[in-house]
Amino acid sequence: MRSALAVQIICLWLCPAAWAGAWLQEPGKAFLAVTATLRRGAPQAQFENTIYGEYGLAPRLTLGIDINQRPVIAGHALLFIRTPLGSGTTRNRFAFEAAVGGYHWMGQWQPMYKTALSMGRSITVKGIPGWLAVDAAIERRIGTPAPTAKLDATLGLSGAARVQPILQIETARTSGLPLMWTVTPGITVKGPKETTWVIGIERKSVIRQTIGIKLGFWRRF
User: Fold this and answer.
1) Do 100 and 79 form a contact (C-beta atoms < 8 A)?
2) What is the dihedral of CA 214, 204, 42, 206, to 10 degrees?
3) What CATH number did the domain enclosing 130 receive?
4) What pLDDT, in 10s, does the model give residues 4-20?
5) I need a surface site. Which of 32, 39, 68, 74 has the fewest CB within 10 A?
6) What local confidence, expressed as pLDDT, does residue 209 receive?
7) Strands 47-58 vs 61-70: parallel, antiparallel or unpaired
8) d(CA 31, CA 53)
9) Please, which residues have CB within 8 angstroms of residue 96's CB and are 6 or more apart in sequence?
10) Those residues with Cβ within 8 angstroms of residue 156's Cβ, 6 or more apart along the chain or in another chain
11) What is the mean pLDDT of the chain?
C-alpha cells in the first residue's frame, strides 16, 4: 500500500510547473502554451500533454488555466489567479498565485489546491537580454498524506536572434520521499504573429531516471 501511494505521488509530480512567473498579462491580452512530451524509461508516463493559458483581467490581476494529462494514469485541471506584490516598477518583480481545481489518479478525481510565490528578473548575458523566473509553490492534493513543496527556475534569452536558448530546472519534495528533480535544456524558435516554438530534452529523476523530448507552442493574443 505504501509503495503504491509513493508511485501515485511521484506520477502526480510529473505535472510540469514551469510556465508560471511573476509577470502578469496586460488587460485584454492572452497567452497560450501547448506542450507534448514523449519519454523513455517511464512506463507510467510515456506520453504527456499540457495546456496552459493566461488572460489579463485587470492591470493587477491575471486569470489562468493549467491542464495536464497523461492518458489513463493521472492529470490535473487548475484555475488560478495571479496578482503582483509591490509596484512592479523595479528590475525585480514579485507575484502571488493561488489555484484550485482537481487531479485524477487512474480515473478517480479528487480536489487539489496550490499557492505560489514568484520572482522575475530581467537579465543580460554577454549583451543579450533575457529573463530569470523563480517559483516556489506548495501543492495539496486531497487523498495524499502530505503536501508537495516545489522550487522551479527558468532562464531564457530574448534577443533579436530567431533561435534562443532556454533552461528549466524543477525540484519537488514530499515528506517521506527523496528529492525529485527535472532539468530541461532547450531552444525557442520565433515564428510569425507572436508565435514561438519550443524544443527541449528533458531529464527526470523520478521512478527511474528518464529522458524525454518536449515540443511546445507559445502564442500571444
Assistant:
1) yes
2) -150
3) 2.40.160.40
4) 455 555 555 555 545 56
5) 32
6) 66
7) antiparallel
8) 6
9) 82, 83, 85, 115, 116, 117, 118
10) 130, 131, 164, 165, 166, 167, 188
11) 86
CB-based burial label for 9 (10 Å; 0-12, 13-18, 19+): buried
Measure the CA–CA gap between 37 and 15, rounded to whole angstroms: 11
Which domain, by its residues, includes 188? 2-220
The residue assigned the cell 480536489 is 111
What is the number of structural domains in the chain? 1
**Distance between CA 49 and CA 214 in Å, rounded?**
10
Closest CA to 67 of 83, 79, 56, 55: 79
Give the integer Cα–Cα distance in Å for 156 and 143.
Answer: 36
pLDDT tens, position by position, 114-168: 999 999 998 888 888 898 999 999 999 998 888 999 999 999 988 888 999 999 9
User: Distance between CA atoms of 141 and 135, rounded to whole angstroms?
Assistant: 19
- Classify residue 23 by its DSSP letter: P
Q: Which three cell numbers stand for residue 9?
A: 505521488
